[in-house]
Every structure is written in structure tokens, then in C-alpha cells.
What we know:
Blueprint: E1 2-5, E2 14-19, E3 25-31, E4 37-40, E5 49-56, E6 59-66
Antiparallel strand pairs: 1-4, 2-3, 2-5, 5-6
Amino acid sequence: MFAVSYxxxxxxxxxxxxxxxxxxxxxxxxxxxxxxxxxxNVSKVPKGVYLVTLESDGKRKSVKFVK
Length: 67
């Protein structure tokens, strides 16, 4: 399990995406405005380096994680 904690702009939804090193999307989910923690099951994702991106209101924040 992988947990992501975030804060979205007021009254805005977000899109959470996980991509692999090849730029392929392995996970994508629309996140509601009131949510601030997302638990993602990455057990079926192969070992490697991934980029977690949260996009909302035209802004984007990305962090790397290694499984």
C-alpha cells in the first residue's frame, strides 16, 4: 500500500496519476475536493521507479517513489 497526502485548492477536484519510467500510466484516479489522503494498492505494480503526479486547477505537483 502506498499513501499520498495532499491539499487541493478550495472547491477543486484533482487527478492523481502514477507513471512508470517509460511514461506509461499505471494508475489514474479523480480525487474529490474534500479528500486529503489517498491509499493506493501498488502490489500488482512491478518493482521500479515511478512518478506520482497530482494535477488540479492547472497546477501540477510530482514526486518520485521507488517500489
